[in-house]
Design goal:
By secondary structure, this protein is of the alpha/beta class. It is built from nine helices and 18 strands. The protein is globular and about 65 Å long.
């Protein structure tokens, strides 16, 4: 089972550099579509803007759906303040302390981009003493200092910045000599790259999936409604999303995660058992995840009324929704499980 790891890593690094907070995903979807063109794979778009692939399987009596989402965390401008700085409202669930000191790009409606930095509105200990150390990191206490000569609301609005403008964070992607890849938004662009590694494996080896297969590159997962247009012939949904590494999550960055439960629902036992048996039969290292603050495209679809079996797998990632990290070994194990199972 030969996995083209360098292809997955390089494509991952490329799409990580394309800003795509949920609701602002057209550019990264264009790159996904371009890569499908390069591989000679046909696709179409959903009305919500998902890119969808349909592959015929060796067995056409059963149909699976695989998803990975291109949308990331981010923010929108909630308020242009009287001092010319910006108050934000988050897109997706993250702690404001996780982005303190982070550089951002503000994307205006007319296509202009401006840089800035997220800071507490009382940032300097030289001025405010212990207040910067002790103040709560909430949206109301944080602001974007624009790297422009602005001192008033009117100055900022003159740049074309207004409420509703999207804000993206720099990713700071790095692959270390020890095999770790760290970046913002490995959730879920790493998984998108792993799907492409699976597709490349099929192409390089002139293979079909075991069963008919839809692949959805979804674009609203971080806000809870990524895959909502499921064809009637789908029997099984496997969401490809990150596993969690923490004391209470039992994840391992060098292994693939197979989810058993999240805070929305348990996952289908029959499919989870098949995934675990497939991993064991193929010598694939895995963990089983039970998550108390987590959801996937699969569970979101179930809550929207989809009638199908459902599962979630993915690379185990440390410090999720912060500055994330995983290991290339776990990337390989995830791709191997995709190949062996699908």
């Amino acid at each position: 089972m030969k996995v083209d790891l360098s292809y997955a890593v390089e494509f991952c690094k490329e799409i990580l550099e394309i800003p795509s907070p949920a609701g602002y995903t057209e550019l990264v979807m264009e790159r996904v579509a371009k890569e499908l063109d390069t591989l000679g794979i046909e696709y179409f778009y959903s009305k919500k803007g998902c890119v969808i692939v349909r592959l015929e399987g060796e067995n056409t009596t059963y149909t699976r759906l695989l998803s990975a989402h291109v949308d990331t965390l981010g923010a929108v401008v909630k308020k242009v303040k009287s001092n010319g700085r910006l108050e934000l409202m988050n897109i997706g669930g993250y702690a404001w302390g996780s982005v303190e000191g982070e550089n951002v790009i503000i994307h205006t409606l007319d296509g202009r981009e401006y840089e800035g930095t997220v800071l507490p509105n009382k940032a300097s200990v030289h001025v405010y003493g212990d207040i910067p150390r002790e103040m709560a990191r909430t949206a109301e206490n944080m602001e974007v200092r624009l790297d422009e000569e602005v001192y008033s609301e009117q100055d900022t609005r003159a740049l074309g910045i207004c409420q509703g403008d999207f804000v993206s964070y720099y990713t700071k992607t790095k692959v270390t000599e020890s095999g770790y890849i760290k970046s913002r938004y490995l959730d879920d662009k790493l998984c998108v790259a792993q799907v492409f590694a699976y597709l490349k494996y099929l192409k390089d080896n002139n293979k079909k999936p075991n069963n008919n297969l839809y692949i959805y590159f979804s674009n609203f997962e971080e806000v809870g409604h990524g895959v909502s247009e499921i064809p009637n012939d789908v029997d099984e949904f496997v969401a490809l999303d990150i596993g969690l590494v923490a004391e209470d999550a039992h994840g391992d960055e060098k292994k693939v995660s197979i989810a058993a439960r999240d805070n929305k629902t348990v996952y289908d036992l029959k499919i989870r058992k098949k995934l675990q048996e497939t991993a064991e039969a193929n010598g694939i290292n895995y963990t089983v995840g039970v998550y108390n603050r987590y959801g996937s495209d699969a569970t979101a679809s179930i809550l929207q009324g989809a009638d199908l079996r459902y599962a979630c797998i993915g690379p185990n990632v440390d410090a999720t929704h912060h500055y994330e990290r995983t290991h290339l070994d776990g990337v390989i194990e995830t791709i191997k499980l995709l190949i062996a199972y699908l």
